[in-house]
Amino acid sequence: MGNCVGGNADASATASPTHNQQKQQKVQENHPEAHAHDATQSHTKTDNKRPGGHNEATSAHGTSSSTTPSTAGQHGKGNSAHSSGTAGAGVNAPKPAKTPAIMGPVLNRPMDDVKNYYTLGKELGRGQFGVTHLCTEKATGKLYACKSIAKRKLTNKDDIEDVRREVQIMHHLAGQPNIVEMKGAYEDKQSVHLVMELCAGGELFDRIIAKGHYTEKAAAAACRTIVQVVHTCHVMGVIHRDLKPENFLLQSKRDDSPLKATDFGLSVFFKPGDVFKDIVGSAYYVAPEVLRRHYGPEADIWSAGVILFILLSGVPPFWAETEQGIFDAILKGQIDYSSDPWPSISHGALDLVKKMLTQDPKERLTAAQVLSHPWIRVDGEASDKPIDNAVLGRMKQFRAMNKLKKLALKVIAESLSEEEIMGLKQMFRSMDTDNSGTITFEELKIGLAKQGSKLAEHEVRQLMDAVSGHFQRALSVTALCHF
């Protein structure tokens, strides 16, 4: 679930809740579930976070305190015999029975209507499990983001437990400068509503691309913030488990806006020595030990290392047309540092990337060690030399490809049932009107329009081109079906 929600559809996507679907892609940037088997066929959770909420503080051990709202009028005066002036009248009369509060099955607290406290405004984004609206707190006029999750999407006990754990973690991490704040959470008969700090500045990579230029020093600053978040989490006994660029949003559009970590829907509490076995995360960023089902907090360092790799080169270190192919490449662990732009990247930056992307988690740097590395420290070795524009071009292409994948899922997930979502492959094949095994530009444009997409023609063209990294007249149906 994305917690700090930006004022656009992409930002809201990072705020979507997780769901244990039996689908092919839950490990990537567009929220699907993947399979790996020992790294080749393992059930995977997605970054479609199931956000949960609670207005009361919750401890790391899962205990929570809920306060039942006072019954209207129970503190009022004047209904006694003395107030009416009739001695003894009504003194022994039976008191009317209080209507018991209806407990919400998800938050395990009395149900409450979010609209009692907030006015919901324009839609900011829509994902597979809910809709995000701008909201205004009635008491203060302050703006927040409200993510409303349909309870019918929480289909089993694990889903509900994931919601509760996320709320516990958000309360546990409250007050940290680079972690989004949860304002409160509410549950009614249909939905769970999460009110979060509003991050209107957009995603990290989008800001970098919009500027059109940046330096190693800027990359070091961004990575430093990310690893500071990781360090805070680890010190406080939390593994994030889904670090990726989309989960870091800028608080505002100001140039000096702080970067905020979001989306703790896959996060877990841990103690030293704990070993986790469930495969979660996003394909490009998942650590090899996660695919091997034996991991701990070191997996977060790997994911942060992948982000740094992309910041410096524009592409992830492991690339394939399918998620299974990405997993296989991650397990092989062969990273190409000989191709551009790596020969022109500073020795310090290259050294840090390699130490964060060490295959053996025991040999990998800790968050504290990363922060003390000479290249990443404030006023450290990172230079002001501009990074090659080709890196920005590749980064832009990578972002566009991910947006197409998200769109492909959103087109279906916004309006269809779980069973219909399983028809993802059929949708793409239906666009292939001439049964050629590929989808042409016209077929993609018409197919997306039929599903409610409002993309302009040039945007469809840009997204289509981004899938393969270059202009082409048709897309492989097989490749699309691996989203």
TrEMBL record:
Q: What InterPro entries does this protein's entry cite?
A: CDPK_Ser/Thr_kinases, EF-hand-dom_pair, EF_Hand_1_Ca_BS, EF_hand_dom, Kinase-like_dom_sf, Prot_kinase_dom, Protein_kinase_ATP_BS, Ser/Thr_kinase_AS
Major enzyme class: transferase
Residue ranges with Basic and acidic residues bias:
26-50
Q: Which UniProt keywords apply?
A: ATP-binding, Calcium, Kinase, Metal-binding, Nucleotide-binding, Repeat, Serine/threonine-protein kinase, Transferase
Q: Where is the EF-hand domain?
A: 419-454
Q: Provide any one GO MF term from the record.
A: protein serine/threonine kinase activity
The yes or no answer to whether the keyword ATP-binding is present is yes
Question: One short Pfam family name for this protein?
Answer: Pkinase
The annotated regions of Low complexity compositional bias extend over: 57-72
List ligand-binding residues for ATP: 151
Q: Quote the catalytic activity from the record.
A: L-threonyl-[protein] + ATP = O-phospho-L-threonyl-[protein] + ADP + H(+); L-seryl-[protein] + ATP = O-phospho-L-seryl-[protein] + ADP + H(+)
- EC number(s)? 2.7.11.1
- Presence of the UniProt keyword Iron-sulfur in the record: no
Ranges where the Protein kinase domain occurs: 118-376
Q: Describe the family membership recorded for this protein in Swiss-Prot or TrEMBL.
A: Belongs to the protein kinase superfamily. Ser/Thr protein kinase family. CDPK subfamily.
Q: What is this protein called?
A: non-specific serine/threonine protein kinase
- Say which species the protein is native to: Ceratopteris richardii
